[in-house]
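Late entry, written up from scratch paper. The run itself happened at the end of the previous shift, but nothing got recorded in the book at the time, so transcribing now.
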Amino acid sequence: MIDKEFNNINLLKYFENTDNLWDFHNQFNFENNDRAIVIVGLSYIDDLLLKCLENFFPDNSKTVEKLLGHRGVLGSFNSKVELLYCLGFIDKIVKSDLDTLGEIRNKFAHKLKISFEDEEIIKKCNSFKWHEIAMMRKAPKETNAIDIFKVEVNTVVSHLSGIVSICASDKRILKDAYGK
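Output as recorded:
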């Protein structure tokens, strides 16, 4: 009975994740507003980071819920990235690109007049490395910042989607008072 219940929960999670990916795809790839593209892209990445940690940490734990909540120690985008890096789930290049993506998101969240034509944003987009590794090539010289950003976000999303499963395979369990 437990295995059947476990499989039903996993099946529901799978379909929920598929629906979320579809929503992300539609909003991210067909939106024409720079700010919306950044917010949607980073929101979905933040959700994937959270899924990684939820899959790694023990189930049904109030302590884990507190840690991962918005006000918890691991509630911020940055803290999730740092922890996944320290646990060895993401490498230095992915961590660096996630840090840069977070900086771009903060610029778009806190400035009203900003776009992918801003020199600082262009420089940050040109500093990404993960998409070059994932695509096994550099972007063509004439590629603009928004296209580099979109390819970077999509390659990071693909990468993190696989890591969600890896985190589940390394799931932690809580021990009782006797270490069991």
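The chain has a mean pLDDT of 89.
(Scratch paper discarded after transcription.)
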